[in-house]
Design brief:
The chain has 731 residues and is an alpha+beta fold. Among the domains are: 78 residues, Penicillin binding protein transpeptidase fold (Orthogonal Bundle), CATH 1.10.3810; 86 residues, Immunoglobulin-like. Helices cover 34% and strands 17% of the residues. It has a five-stranded antiparallel β-sheet, with helices on both faces. It has a five-stranded mixed β-sheet with strand order 18-24-23-20-21, with no helix packed on it. Strand 12 and strand 13 form a beta hairpin. Helix 5 crosses helix 6. About 3% of the residues have low confidence.
C-alpha cells in the first residue's frame, strides 16, 4: 500500500509539474527584438533614434561577442557565481529568503542573469508563481544555449534608463562612443544602472550620484577579484566622480519628416542595427527649416498652408536637408511629407524636354522657335501674350508654353513621356495621350524629390544618380546616362542667363544670384502649386509651396514667390561654415564657341537687330541664319503645282485638351489652323467626316471644347485633295 501511495503521489507530482515545465521549455528561446538605429548627421551630430519594439524603447543592438571588461563589471555585483550555477543560484535563493524572512519584507532578490533574461523576454508582475517560471526558464535557457549566449542576450536587452536598452546603445547614448572604447570608470558607471534603471537614471535628480556610487562599488569588487590592479582602481575612482555624460540629445526641430524618410531608407536597405551616419547636414537642415518658417510667416495672407524644401549635394546627390511641411503637427495636413506627394509641377519640367530636343538635334541653340497663336494648339501662355520668334535660350528662360508644347510634339509625345519616366519622374501605366502636349505644362503630376533628382541630370552632365540618404553607404553607379554633356550644359546656360528672362521676369529679383545659378520656376493652374528648382556647381535646391486640400492660393503665389525661399536656402548653404565661398562658373559645352546672334532671328547679321545675345554654337556650323526647324515663317509659293498640299498645322494629332469649368460658356474653344501649298481661296473644314465651315486658309477654325474624341480634316471645295486627319480628345 505504501509503495502504491508513493507511486500515486509521484504521478500526481509529475502531472502537476509537467505543465509549468513544458511552458518554461517553450519560453526558453533567445528571441531577437526589433533593434533600433541611432541616426546622426554626416558629421556625427545626433538626429534621432528610430525603430525598436515600442515607441520610446531604443537599442537592442546585437553584439558579436561578449566584451570581457563589460562582462566582468556586470557580473561583479549582479551575479558573482554566474560561471558556476546552472541559471539559478541556490545560495542566492537561500540568502534572499533568510533576509526577507528576518525583516518581513522584500529586502533582496536572487535573480541571476539568466532569470533576468527570462523576465526581459516575457515581462510579468513579480509574483511567486512568475518568479518560479523565470527560474525554470533560466535553467532551460542555460541548458539550451550556454552561459555566454545568455550573457550576450542580457547585454543586448537590459535597460540602461531613458529608453536605452543594451550596452551598445547605452555607450553611444550617454558617452558617444563604441563599447570597445570605454574606460573602466565608464564601464563601471554604465554597469551600475541596470540594477535600478529608474533610481539610477543619470538625468534624474540624484541619479547620477547614485549611479557613480554603485559604479565605485563595482570597481572595488573588480579589484577584489584581481580584475583591475590598485593603480587602475585609483584612476577609475577619480574619473567616475567627475564623469561627464553627453547632454540628453534632442531631435532637431522641423526634422521629423527627414527622420521618417531615413527610417524608411534603413528598412529598405536592411541595414544592421546600430549607428547610421546619414547624408543629412544638421546645420543645413536647421537653416532650411528656419528659412521655411520665415517664408511661411511672410506669406501667411496668401492662403498658403505648407512648404517643402530639399537641398542636395550636386556631385553625389546626397540629401543635405529635407523639410516636408510647414509644421508636422499642423492640423491642416502637416503630417504629410510634401516632398513625397505628387503635385502639378507647372512649367518645372520644361528644361528636361529642351535638353532632350537638343540631344536629338530637333533644335539647335540658334534655332528659331515661335510663340504665336498659330502654334498654340489650345495652349496659352501665363500672361496670355505671344512674343513671336525667339531662340531656345529666351523661350526657356521666359518659360513660354507655346514653344514648349510644340517641342513635345516635335520630339514625339511618346518619346518625351518615356524619357520623363526613365528620369524617375513617373511610373504611370496610362498612355502618353492621356497627358497630351501639356506634359511639360503641369498635366503630369510629380513629387519634389523626383524633380530634384531629375534636375541632377542637368546638373551632372546628363547622368542620372539616385538620391543618397546614408553617408557610409557604398556609392551607386549612375543608373544611366540620360543625355549628353553638351545638351545639358546648353540648358544650364539658358537657365543661368538673367538677361534673357526679360520680358516675362523682371531683373534683380529672386531669380538672380551673386554667382552662376540655373533657375526654373513653375506654377500650376489657378496657383495651386508654386515651384522653384535652382542648382549650382555645388548644390541642387528644390522648393514647393501649396495647400493640403489642393485649393488655390492667392495669385501672388507664383513660382517667383517660391523662388524667394529657394534663394534664401541656397545662399544660406554657401554661408555655412566649411561651405565653398561662392559657386564656380558652369563649364561650357565642348566643341562650341560663343557667337553673337540676333535674339529674334538667330542671325549673325546684327544690322538693325533690336536685341543681341551671346549663344553657344558648334564651331563646325556654317555661317548664316539659323535653321528654323519648328514652325518656320510661312513662305508663299505662287508657282503652279499639279498637286495641292493640304495639312492641319495645329494642333498636332493626339493633342488632349482639358476643359476649364471656370471658363464662361462659349469662350472655351479649340482653334485649328491649316496650311495650303500653293495658295487657294477657300477651305472646307470637316469634323468626324461632316462639313462644318468654309473659311479662308489664313482663318482659324474654332470648335467648342466639349468632351469627346474628334477627327478634323480640310478639303478644297473644287479639288479632290484632302489633308490627313488630326485626332483630338477633349476631357
Amino acid at each position: 500500500m505504501v509503495r502504491k501511495a508513493a507511486s500515486v503521489a509521484l504521478l500526481v507530482l509529475a502531472a502537476a509539474l509537467l505543465p509549468p515545465l513544458v511552458a518554461a521549455w517553450q519560453r526558453a528561446e533567445l528571441t531577437e527584438p526589433p533593434a533600433s538605429h541611432l541616426l546622426t548627421d554626416r558629421h556625427g551630430s545626433y538626429l534621432a533614434d528610430v525603430g525598436g519594439p515600442a515607441p520610446g524603447d531604443h537599442g537592442y543592438w546585437p553584439l558579436q561577442r561578449v566584451p570581457e571588461r563589460v562582462a566582468a563589471a556586470t557580473l561583479a555585483l549582479e551575479d558573482g557565481r554566474f560561471h558556476s550555477h546552472p541559471g539559478v543560484d541556490p545560495l542566492a535563493l537561500l540568502r534572499a529568503a533568510w533576509q526577507n524572512l528576518r525583516c518581513g519584507c522584500v529586502h533582496s532578490g536572487a535573480s541571476t542573469i539568466a532569470m533576468q533574461v527570462a523576465r526581459l523576454q516575457n515581462p510579468a508582475p513579480r509574483t511567486l508563481g512568475n518568479k518560479s517560471m523565470e527560474a525554470l526558464t533560466a535553467l532551460f535557457l542555460t541548458l539550451r544555449y550556454g552561459r555566454e549566449a545568455v550573457l550576450l542576450q542580457y547585454l543586448r536587452l537590459v535597460p540602461y534608463g531613458n529608453g536605452s536598452h543594451g550596452i551598445g546603445h547605452a555607450a553611444q547614448w550617454y558617452l558617444d562612443k563604441p563599447v570597445d572604447d570605454l574606460s573602466w570608470a565608464e564601464i563601471a558607471y554604465l554597469s551600475a544602472i541596470p540594477h535600478a534603471p529608474h533610481r539610477l537614471n543619470p538625468v534624474r535628480p540624484g541619479g547620477h550620484e547614485q549611479a557613480a556610487a554603485r559604479g565605485a562599488r563595482i570597481l572595488h569588487a573588480l579589484h577584489a577579484l584581481d580584475v583591475i590592479d590598485a593603480a587602475e582602481l585609483e584612476l577609475a575612482e577619480r574619473q567616475i566622480g567627475r564623469l561627464g555624460l553627453r547632454s540628453r540629445p534632442q531631435r532637431p526641430a522641423g526634422g521629423l519628416h527627414a527622420i521618417l524618410e531615413l527610417e524608411r531608407q534603413l528598412q529598405w536597405s536592411a541595414r544592421p542595427a546600430g549607428v547610421a551616419v546619414t547624408s543629412l547636414h544638421l546645420p543645413s537642415q536647421q537653416m532650411a527649416y528656419r528659412a521655411s518658417q520665415r517664408w511661411l510667416h511672410a506669406h501667411a495672407e496668401q492662403a498658403v498652408q505648407h512648404v517643402a524644401v530639399m537641398a542636395v549635394d550636386r556631385e553625389t546627390m546626397a540629401v543635405r536637408a529635407l523639410v516636408g511641411s510647414g509644421d508636422y503637427f499642423d492640423a491642416s495636413g502637416g503630417s504629410l511629407d510634401y516632398t513625397r506627394r505628387p503635385r502639378s509641377p507647372g512649367s518645372v519640367l520644361k528644361p528636361l524636354v529642351y535638353a532632350l530636343a537638343l540631344e536629338r538635334q530637333v533644335i539647335r541653340p540658334d534655332t528659331i522657335l515661335w510663340d504665336r497663336a498659330r502654334e498654340a494648339s489650345g495652349v496659352r501662355n501665363a500672361d496670355r501674350l505671344f512674343l513671336g520668334p525667339m531662340l531656345p535660350r529666351q523661350a526657356l528662360a521666359n518659360s513660354r508654353n507655346v514653344p514648349a508644347a510644340q517641342l513635345v510634339q516635335e520630339v514625339g509625345l511618346e518619346t518625351s513621356y518615356r524619357f520623363l519616366e526613365q528620369a524617375g519622374l513617373h511610373h504611370d501605366a496610362r498612355p502618353a495621350e492621356h497627358y497630351g502636349a501639356g506634359l511639360t505644362l503641369g498635366t503630369l503630376h510629380v513629387t519634389l524629390r523626383d524633380v530634384v533628382q531629375a534636375f541632377g541630370i542637368l546638373a551632372n552632365d546628363g547622368q542620372l544618380q539616385p538620391l543618397r540618404w546614408l553617408r557610409d553607404a557604398p556609392p551607386e553607379e549612375p543608373t544611366a546616362r540620360m543625355l549628353g554633356a553638351d545638351s545639358t550644359r546648353l540648358v544650364t546656360a539658358f537657365l543661368s542667363d538673367p538677361m534673357v528672362r526679360l520680358p516675362s521676369f523682371s531683373r534683380m529679383g529672386a531669380l538672380e544670384y551673386p554667382f552662376p545659378a540655373a533657375v526654373k520656376t513653375g506654377t500650376s493652374q489657378d496657383f495651386r502649386d508654386a515651384w522653384t528648382v535652382v542648382y549650382t556647381r555645388d548644390y541642387v535646391v528644390g522648393v514647393w509651396a501649396g495647400r493640403s486640400d489642393g485649393a488655390p492660393m492667392h495669385d501672388g503665389m507664383r513660382g517667383s514667390a517660391a523662388a524667394e525661399l529657394a534663394r534664401e536656402v541656397l545662399l544660406g548653404l554657401y554661408a555655412l561654415p566649411g561651405a565653398p565661398r561662392q559657386a564656380r562658373a558652369f563649364p561650357p559645352p565642348e566643341g562650341y564657341a560663343p557667337v553673337s546672334l540676333c535674339l529674334h532671328t538667330g542671325s549673325r547679321d546684327l544690322t538693325r537687330c533690336p536685341a543681341v545675345t551671346t549663344e553657344w554654337v558648334r564651331a563646325a556650323h556654317e555661317e548664316g541664319i539659323a535653321t528654323a526647324t519648328l514652325a518656320p515663317l510661312p513662305e508663299r509659293d505662287l508657282v503652279e503645282r499639279r498637286e495641292l498640299s493640304l495639312r492641319i498645322a495645329s494642333p498636332a494629332t493626339g493633342t488632349v485638351y482639358f476643359r476649364n469649368p471656370e471658363t464662361p460658356e462659349g469662350l472655351d474653344r479649340i482653334r485649328l489652323w491649316a496650311e495650303v501649298d500653293p495658295g487657294i481661296d477657300q477651305l472646307v473644314w470637316y469634323v468626324n467626316g461632316r462639313p462644318q465651315a468654309v473659311l479662308a486658309p489664313d482663318q482659324a477654325f474654332q470648335w467648342p471644347m466639349e468632351a469627346g474624341r474628334y477627327a478634323f480634316h480640310v478639303e478644297s471645295p473644287f479639288r479632290p485633295e484632302r489633308s490627313r486627319p488630326v485626332l483630338i480628345t477633349v476631357r
